[in-house]
Write a structure and sequence with these properties.
Number of helices: 7
CATH architecture of the largest domain: 3-Layer(aba) Sandwich
Number of strands: 9
Number of domains: 2
Helix content: 25-40%
Strand order of the largest sheet: 2-1-6-5-7
CATH class of the largest domain: Alpha Beta
Shape: elongated
Order of helices and strands: EHEEEHEHEHEHEEHH
Distance between the termini: 32 Å
Radius of gyration: 21 Å
Largest sheet: 5 strands, parallel
Strand content: 15-25%
Structural class: alpha/beta
């Protein structure tokens, strides 16, 4: 089982993603446990403050050092984390290979950024990995954290109905997924390729590989350059 703890200023944003579909199935099977922690419980003063103005001036508030450290240290008393991940636009870009790596871990801790970011000392002394879901800025790290958990969760053995399903997803082996079809075999004159109806599975697999390679060359040639 993988346990993923998430620290958030707005934990309500993460209620729905983990209560449905594949991630709920993973939790029900005891294969994945996701626990969201409200950082404001560690906030300072009667207003439970978690952010403050940045030294040196400038627009935007910064997540304070003390609430985050207190929360992280409390969690570290309960378990040792394989990775402490900060979701940030300037992290390494998330890709399938990273999801594969993280799916092999036991305990992960994710910090969702907010405002202008977090006090740099948290990054220096606690964070072991920084991940971005793309070259754009969102209001906070909650949605990126949900993406990360979803990508990891579906790779856990036993979560998906067909164990080979995740292995044939796009970006496994640096290829996009080939075209897929289902019933009916013909609709408005639009036909499924005859080979897929033949039952010749070695030839079908060869066709799928060729189609995946063709689609990757057309749409994402950069993936082939990385090989």
């Amino acid at each position: 089982m993988i346990r993923i703890d998430i620290i958030s200023v707005l934990p309500e944003l993460l209620e729905s993603p983990f209560q449905h579909s594949i991630l709920k199935r993973a939790a029900d099977k005891g294969l994945l446990e996701v626990v969201v922690h409200d950082l404001r419980k560690y906030g300072l003063g009667k207003h439970q403050q978690v952010d403050d103005y940045q030294y040196g001036g400038g627009a935007g508030m910064v997540m304070m050092l003390e609430p985050v450290v207190s929360c992280m240290e409390d969690l570290q008393k309960e378990r040792t984390y394989d990775e402490i991940i900060y979701m940030t636009p300037d992290g390494e870009r998330f890709q399938q290979s990273i999801a594969n790596q993280l799916s092999l871990k036991n305990n992960l801790l994710i910090l969702c950024g907010h405002y202008k970011g977090i006090d740099e000392r948290i990054r220096e002394h606690f964070i072991t990995r920084e991940i971005s879901v793309g070259d754009y800025v969102l209001s906070g790290g909650e949605l990126p954290a949900a993406i990360l958990v979803d990508a990891i969760g579906r790779l856990i053995p036993g979560v998906l109905g067909d164990e080979t399903s995740a292995l044939t997803d796009s970006f496994q082996d640096n290829l996009l997924a080939p075209p897929v079809y289902t019933r009916p075999a013909e609709y408005r004159g639009w036909k499924v390729p005859e080979l897929l109806l033949s039952g010749n599975f070695p030839k079908i697999e060869e066709w799928r590989y060729e189609q995946a390679l063709k689609r990757t060359q057309e749409r994402r040639p950069d993936l082939l350059e990385d090989e």
